[in-house]
Amino acid sequence: MAYRVIQWATGGMGKNILRALIDHPAMELVGVYVYSDGKHGRDAGEIARRPETGVLASNRVEDILALDADVVVHAARISPPYGSHDADLIRLLESGKNVISINGFTHPAHWGGERLAALEAACRKGNSSLMGAGLNPGFVGEQLATVATGVCSAVDHIGIVENVSCLPVRNADYVFKVLGFGADPAKVNPNDPSFGPAASLNGMYEEVLAAMAGHLGMDLEKVITEHQSFPATKEIVAMAGVVPAGSVGHYRWRWRGMVGGQPRLTMTIHWYMETAHLDEAEPPLWTVKIDGQPGISLRVDMHKREGDTSPTSAEQIAVAGTVINAIPIVCAAPPGVMLRPMATPFSDLLAHTG
Ligand SMILES: NC(=O)c1ccc[n+]([C@@H]2O[C@H](COP(=O)([O-])OP(=O)(O)OC[C@H]3O[C@@H](n4cnc5c(N)ncnc54)[C@H](OP(=O)(O)O)[C@@H]3O)[C@@H](O)[C@H]2O)c1
After folding, report:
1. Closest Cα to residue 182, out of 271, 310, 64, 60?
2. Residues 21-71: tens digit of each pLDDT
3. Pocket of ligand 1 (CB under 6 A)
4. What are 100's strand-pairing partners?
5. 133-167 in b/e burial notation, b at 16+ Cβ within 10 A?
6. Which of 7, 8, 13, 178 best tests ligand 1's pocket when mutated (most atoms within 8 Å of CB)?
């Protein structure tokens, strides 16, 4: 029996997930939500560069709520503050559909208070579950790094570094106005929580660290930020336009999860237009460094299947992979918000630093 799935939003990521859903024999596409008027009424196959599916996209939330589906894959564009899509997710959960988000939600219980209560109430009402998926958030911290500690008898610190070149990003508004490249470094303070990207990212990556701490039995006291911007060492011609020399050409986002007064979990994400401020000129997608007994180092890159000439990147394909693999898990879960279970059961035996 196939899982009945709705795709919510068809941007770069959503379209790619839509393709994966159409292609997968265990999935039955039953609906597509789009924001734009231009896509309303179009066949999902046409949007996804696939044969006609008979499923027409709609930009009316009511159409989506009325559908009978097992799960909605929520891939809307994130906008500050983190949690700004809660109202949509709550309506979907209340309507009896499980929800997978690629915009965080990897450990919603971390927030407690009214936010958690509202999400939990929606799940109870709809007998539904909410879970995060994706690469980061979703996989490298919450799954990969955590699984790697399975060979350790003690874990002192886990450091994850993600490297994202923004050179190929084409959307100029997004690169310069949303991400903040090309700005005057004196006028940008990435540690100001109201600074655009920080307002979206801080909550999302605090939740990633909370999910890791949750799996590892660590008591996360707080998350502090050590973000930094770097001026471009020269004029850079990116796909989105020119980044002048001396303007912001690199952001280093860094969140430190404090446990027992010490940083025990660190997530670093480099968004860069040049590699001058990186440790290496051709960095991998991720490095994971676990200090403990024993220590572990991972370098991770992704590659497409040989002969695949589609414009979709290996990372985009992988995001869709995490979603596909999450569908049976969220559908089988009891109602409520979820911390995605690990392949291996974990205990709190690793939380000490001995
Ligand atoms: N977890 C992960 O590993 C991971 C990886 C990459 C990206 N992401 C997240 O995925 C999200 C989508 O990425 P993307 O590359 O698909 O972005 P994108 O190409 O900018 O597309 C986002 C889509 O959101 C929809 N949209 C339009 N107006 C909107 C609004 N006011 N509010 C919300 N959504 C609106 C549109 O859908 P329609 O075109 O259907 O109208 C648009 O195409 C990002 O926010 C990012 O944080 C997560």
Report:
1. 271
2. 999 999 999 999 999 999 999 999 999 999 999 999 999 999 999 999 999
3. 9-14, 34-36, 39, 75-79, 102-103, 134-138, 319
4. 73, 131
5. bbbbbbbbbbbbbbebbeebeebebbbbbbbbebb
6. 13
